[in-house]
């Protein structure tokens, strides 16, 4: 179980799978959306310099493909 669906939580999930962990992973976060790239969100996107697709750290299917149970808005 990974608590915190920010950049660190996303990195923890990715590292677990990259290092060969095959067990269940649950990623829990308070926000409704998947982990986002906060520096781009707070600077470039809000200034109108970045497209919306820059915000998520991973593509839509990443967590499902990795067998991660996302519990967002928790």
Write down the secondary-structure element order.
EHEHHE
Query: How much of the sequence is in beta strands?
Result: 15-25%
Low-confidence stretches: none
Overall morphology: elongated
Structural category is alpha/beta
Strand order of the largest sheet: 1-2-3
Gyration radius, to the nearest Å? 13 Å
User: What does the main sheet amount to?
Assistant: 3 strands, parallel
Number of strands: 3
Taking all residues together, what is the mean pLDDT?
Answer: 85
**Termini gap:** 13 Å
* Share of helical residues: 25-40%
Total number of distinct structural domains: 1
What's the total helix number? Answer: 3
Q: What would you say this structure looks like, in words?
A:
The protein contains three helices and three strands; from the N terminus they run E-H-E-H-H-E. With 74 residues, it is α/β, with parallel strands linked by helices. The chain has one domain (2-18, 25-72). Strand 1, helix 1 and strand 2 (25-29) form a beta-alpha-beta unit. The two termini are 13 Å apart.
